[in-house]
Amino acid sequence: MCISVDRVIQSANEALGSMFGYPSDALRGQSFLVLYPTLDEFLRTGDRIVPIMNAKGRYSDERIMRRASGELFWCHVSGRALDPQQALGAGVWTFEDLSEKRPVTAELTPREREIAALLVEGKTSKVIARETDLSPRTVEMHRAKLMRKFSASTSSELVHKLMGVTG
User: Fold this and answer.
1) Please, what's the b/e burial string for 124-146 (b: 16 or more CB within 10 A of its CB; e: otherwise)?
2) Following CA atoms 132, 81, 60, 48 in sequence, which dihedral angle do they give, to the nearest 10 degrees?
3) pLDDT per residue as tens digits for the range 5-18
4) Phi and psi (nearest 5°) for 114?
């Protein structure tokens, strides 16, 4: 758990530091950027969060994050704005490590990670295209690449593999 202001960590508990491989006091004053695989993913996620936070005052999703060691892992992220008028102002955020249930088993590009996270949420290619400012055809191309990388023959099988469901 942490408290942030403008996507900068003000205070973090030991569990958060441990999950990401940092001493908890090392995260104080750090941008959430240090927890993301790339700058682009940090920026795109911020752009996606703002309208939802403005409408609901809270946000949650599952996405691939990065530990201090560089290891990528699936993480459930939930946050709530302390002032509903400031979506990314002061907020409380919780992070849950999903790596035991859902290991990252393929090398993915940043865009593939973004599409994978939205597929796990049950979103269609059209919805993903609208949310990411891509064409539906481009989203379908990324989905096809994900299906190859995960040896999935159907979209349903791909989502199950992304979620770590076996059998």
Assistant:
1) ebeebbebbebeeebbbebbebb
2) 0
3) 999 999 999 999 99
4) -65, -45
